[in-house]
């Protein structure tokens, strides 16, 4: 009995000591350790709403954030916004982290910090099956849709330097697909990982990849500059890769290995 009380008191003491070290710990404890994750839920299987089933945001990134949060003792609240507003949400403190299939580009690194890459992807040109666009050069004079603020938009601008195209920006990926189907766009540029899901549903679409370096379009978690979370999440990511949890998530959402 006495031993029990002693143990209990020791635990309280240790807990007290732990929360006293570092202001960030104390702050998180006060906030009940909730982290706001901003995302753009237009990106199956990374983050999307399966409207037939519920209005909840689900996907690989949501599961990943929850699993990492679980390891580190945080609850994750998901907040939806347009992709082009995500970096700003970190800068203004509206969000603590961003998981949105976001690529750690050097441009973005000027404003935010990134974790290690957790999934790689490539750029893909998607067209209708009956189009005669089969290689980059065939895009000449065509209208190409991309997501506003994405690296696919940068890619389109780069292509435009050698192969003149008309670039159209949209905020949400489903809008790109829709306008491709109605013929307003001749082609769109999205990631192969996301295109795969659309090919399963949309039988009249085809595509080809154009980047040779998969890292070029891979995904990482973004944090505010100098956030102490970056190192913590990297450690937890590493653990998930080692203990097979990451592999399980990849199989669940992408249906197989990279
Ligand atoms: N990986 C690309 C980028 O960082 C596209 C990501 C789009 N993500 C989204 N949730 N819509 O620009």
TrEMBL record:
<comment type="similarity">
    <text>Belongs to the bacterial solute-binding protein 3 family.</text>
</comment>
<dbReference type="GO" id="GO:0015276">
    <property type="term" value="F:ligand-gated monoatomic ion channel activity"/>
</dbReference>
<feature type="signal peptide">
    <location>
        <begin position="1"/>
        <end position="20"/>
    </location>
</feature>
<protein>
    <submittedName>
        <fullName>Amino acid ABC transporter substrate-binding protein</fullName>
    </submittedName>
</protein>
<feature type="domain" description="Solute-binding protein family 3/N-terminal">
    <location>
        <begin position="34"/>
        <end position="257"/>
    </location>
</feature>
<keyword id="KW-0732">Signal</keyword>
<dbReference type="GO" id="GO:0016020">
    <property type="term" value="C:membrane"/>
</dbReference>
<feature type="domain" description="Ionotropic glutamate receptor C-terminal">
    <location>
        <begin position="34"/>
        <end position="256"/>
    </location>
</feature>
<keyword id="KW-0449">Lipoprotein</keyword>
<dbReference type="Pfam" id="PF00497">
    <property type="entry name" value="SBP_bac_3"/>
</dbReference>
<dbReference type="GO" id="GO:0030313">
    <property type="term" value="C:cell envelope"/>
</dbReference>
<dbReference type="InterPro" id="IPR018313">
    <property type="entry name" value="SBP_3_CS"/>
</dbReference>
<keyword id="KW-0564">Palmitate</keyword>
<dbReference type="InterPro" id="IPR001320">
    <property type="entry name" value="Iontro_rcpt_C"/>
</dbReference>
<dbReference type="InterPro" id="IPR001638">
    <property type="entry name" value="Solute-binding_3/MltF_N"/>
</dbReference>
